[in-house]
Amino acid sequence: MKLDATEISSVMKDGDLITLAVLAGLAAVPLAKGIFALLATRRQRRKEFLEFWKADSLGNSSLWLEEVMQHRYGASIPAELIRHVARLGWPSKKLRRLALSADFLQLDAAGQTVTWSNKRRGKAFWLELEMLMSVAGYVAFAALGTALLIAGARQGLGEGFTAFAFGGVIASAGCASFMHFISLVEARSSLVIINDAPRDGLWSRLRNGRSD
């Protein structure tokens, strides 16, 4: 099996690009329906949450508190972390951000601030290196996966099944790498918002360097 620019170009000329566009359009219909259903479910969960929540709810058992937050946001958050964030200013916004990044954040040993669950990410260099590697992985896997999918589709189900299958797996790895990058960006932003801390990203340091 030969994969080069000529092969991919011939596939495009044979109309496969139009086929892919049609498939993408068909996939957009259930996607749009799913988004509307998700929005409706969120509104219903918010209504039910407000019915459950009382002025003294933070004093309830940890199990009750964790289950209520699981129902509201769909994320598993430790009760001590919920209580800490709920007592901060603008708790509704900060609890939403915490739920978005619950897998990446934790309460520090002293119970005074929210930190990264992986201590290495607390250093800007390692966090930004992980982000960079995630983007690089996405580009590499997406390009290779797409090439294999096109080649497999061109060769047909019999001869091209192996290439098509490997292309799907590799493209999925690329998507996972990109989603990890997005999750890291969201978690860093959530950490800043929850702790009311200044941003410590690369662009912030560059701006501060120019202002100095």
Key phrases:
212 residues; mainly alpha; two-stranded antiparallel ribbon; 7 helices; 75% helix; 3% strand
Describe the protein in words:
This protein is mostly helical and 212 residues long. Helix content is 75%, strand content 3%. The protein contains 7 helices and 2 strands, in the order αααααββαα. A hairpin with a 6-residue loop joins β1 and β2 (114-116).
Architecture blueprint of SSEs:
Elements: H1 5-13, H2 16-52, H3 62-73, H4 79-86, H5 91-100, E1 105-107, E2 114-116, H6 124-195, H7 202-211
Helix pairs in contact: 2-3, 5-6
Query: Reading side by side through the largest sheet, how are the strands ordered?
Result: 1-2
Low-pLDDT stretches: none
Largest sheet, if any? 2 strands, antiparallel
Percent range for β-strand residues:
under 5%
What is the averaged pLDDT score? 83
Ends apart, CA distance between termini: 57 Å
Helix content: over 70%
Order of helices and strands: HHHHHEEHH
Output the number of helix runs.
7
Structural class, please? mainly alpha
Query: Mind telling me the C-alpha Rg?
Result: 23 Å
Taken from the alpha-carbon principal axes, the silhouette is: globular
What's a concise summary of this model?
With 212 residues, this protein is mostly helical. The chain has helices at residues 5-13, 16-52, 62-73, 79-86, 91-100, 124-195, 202-211; strands at 105-107, 114-116.
